[in-house]
Amino acid sequence: MTGNKAFIFDKLGIFFKHTDYQGFLHPYNFFEWMSYTREAYFSQVCSDFHNILESPIKMMTAKVDAMLYDDGFFGDSIEAKLTITKIKKVSFDVIIRFFNKMSTKLICETRHTLVFVDSRTNAFTTIPKGLADAIVEYQEQTYI
Amino acid sequence: MPRILVIDDEELVIQTAEKILRREGYDVVAVKTGYDAVEQIKQYNFDLIITDVRMPDLNGVDTLSKIREILNQKGNPRIPEICMTGYADDETISRAKALGVADWLGKPFELKDFLDRIQRILKHHKMEYFSYSQKAFVYKYIVMLSDTDQFKHMSFANYLKLMFLATDALLGPALDSEFLAESRLRLKNSRMQFKKQTVPGDGVLVKVNASEINTSAFALLYTFMVEGTAELVGLGRQVYESVNLKTGLPQSLSIKIGEILAPIDVDEKQLLYKY
Question: ipTM of this model?
């Protein structure tokens, strides 16, 4: 189930370099696009994001799950919808759903867990305040 | 017969441990100092190390660090360790925790608890050794500076890329023009969890096992380890399905794929880690 507010990133397209020997979109691209989408999201919603990146607080990906539902082909345009779930003290999950813009079909759903670690002590630390405030709006309450 | 190295400066502890462990069928070597333990490791193989923490000259934590260094130089996997102590200062405890010893035992301890822990650790270690060293397909990768983030750690996307590289190396010989003319392998789902950071120069071993092989699909299990240390970096699992190129419907796995997967097929429920 999708929440009311999602971050949309629609600058993705399938080019020849994204396809395999048989012309299908290679699944690895979803992981790269996942990275681009979340970066675009954080940069937009959290004005403090670049300061956070330069601080000793390290944002780490602890877990990545992906379900692939349909194929993509050269020339397809992709739209990514990002929402947030399972917000805890030191971590939260990011859900990104990739849709084929032409057919509007969901082709892939990824979910990854981000944790925050203080690189000076190697201990978990709370989500930086600027970021914690920003992600709440995009929380998907009904996600199972 | 599992071989255990016991390190304690107290004669009474050594004698008791030797007696109990031998009665349980273990081969025991007991030494009184960390330096003697290091000499033993240089010459012989062990399945488990049990060490006291507070010892004169070389304490238990420093002894374990030296032992790991030697095992690393020899290219041998890490031996599971149990630390035991009556008391220790905070710094020693936090250093032992940072080392990631398999278990920690406070003195005095219950005999049953002591033996249960040994049995459990040896069982897991044996299973791990069998599953990943004997049966797995191994793909090696050296972490480069270009793979890293601003903290000089290999970024998560590169571990995901490594899963695909290892899969290509494993299944490549079966994906010939004959197969590709009619079929394709379609990734259905992928999962990865990260346990430890790696830095440039680290050798990452991706050990691949197969599981749940049926007529048209199979799962691949990926165990990422730092070469020479047997330290777990991450775990991955992907499910692939063989589909007909024209219809997109599932079709039987080719004989060649079956031949590649059979020797690395494991029962996932029996494995130490949850993928």
Answer: 0.89
